[in-house]
Design goal:
It is built from 2 helices and 13 strands. It is an alpha+beta fold. It folds into 2 domains: 43 residues; 137 residues, Jelly Rolls. A hairpin with a 4-residue loop joins strand 5 and strand 6. It comes from Anabarilius grahami (Kanglang fish).
């Protein structure tokens, strides 16, 4: 049995194939000269022949089932690879501050760590949802633009099509640094625009240490 299994193990995708013990893909007709293949009462080897045919039918069915399963698995893997979405960006690679601003503005993150699917635009700061599904989104805001004793505010929100999903606000007058982080899950649709908005009266500061970040990835698709 071990020799037989090694002989028929290789899988070739495509139409269903026939496997047998005589010649791969070919079933030989009964031999009229051999009475064991024509007369069931002639000898006990007819029982062995019937068992052989039964085993061949079982192997054919099993091999074709494995081929179908392999084809489905490969198709699923291909869909996963084609629909991967992930991005992670930072504000800048050098010393830079934004604000304080009089009206809310979109934050444009220019330092890209990863952008699988090219859905984040570093010119506009907009992440455009390429596939409907549940997404993990996160952003961190940081500022050290103030001075001891002066009012320092770091406040921003993550927005979907201009509507806030979550907001961060850190207003503290006792030190020179403020920082806050938010992580959330959101069900998004194709074409939704996700942005980080800096609020009025607030500012952000960053450098090569990347204190201000914005990230997201597709957890699972819903279509």
């Amino acid at each position: 049995k071990g020799v037989v299994l090694f002989f028929v193990l290789p899988l070739v995708l495509g139409q269903q194939r026939t496997y047998n013990w005589d010649t791969p893909g070919q079933t030989l007709p009964p031999d009229p000269i051999n009475p064991c293949l024509t007369d069931q009462d002639s000898c006990g080897c007819c029982v062995m022949q019937r068992k052989k045919w039964q085993l061949e039918e079982y192997l054919n069915s099993s091999m074709n089932s494995l081929e179908d399963s392999l084809a489905r698995a490969q198709n699923t893997l291909r869909n996963i690879r084609e629909n991967r979405v992930a991005f992670s960006v930072a504000l800048t690679d050098r010393r830079r501050c934004i604000g304080p601003v009089r009206t809310a503005v979109n934050v444009v993150y220019q330092s890209i760590f990863i952008n699988i699917g090219e859905a984040y635009n570093s010119s506009t700061g907009v992440f455009t949802v390429p596939r409907s599904g549940v997404y993990n989104l996160a952003f961190t805001v940081f500022s050290d633009a103030g001075s001891p004793g002066a009012l320092l505010s770091v406040c921003a929100s993550i927005r979907r099509n201009g509507v806030a999903l979550a907001a961060l606000r850190e207003v503290y007058a006792q030190d020179q640094e403020d920082q806050a982080t938010a992580v959330l899950l959101a069900q998004l649709s194709v074409g939704d625009r996700i942005t980080i908005s800096l609020h009025s009266g607030c500012w952000l500061c960053d450098d090569q240490n990347h204190y201000n970040t914005f990230s997201g990835f597709l957890l699972y698709a819903t279509e």
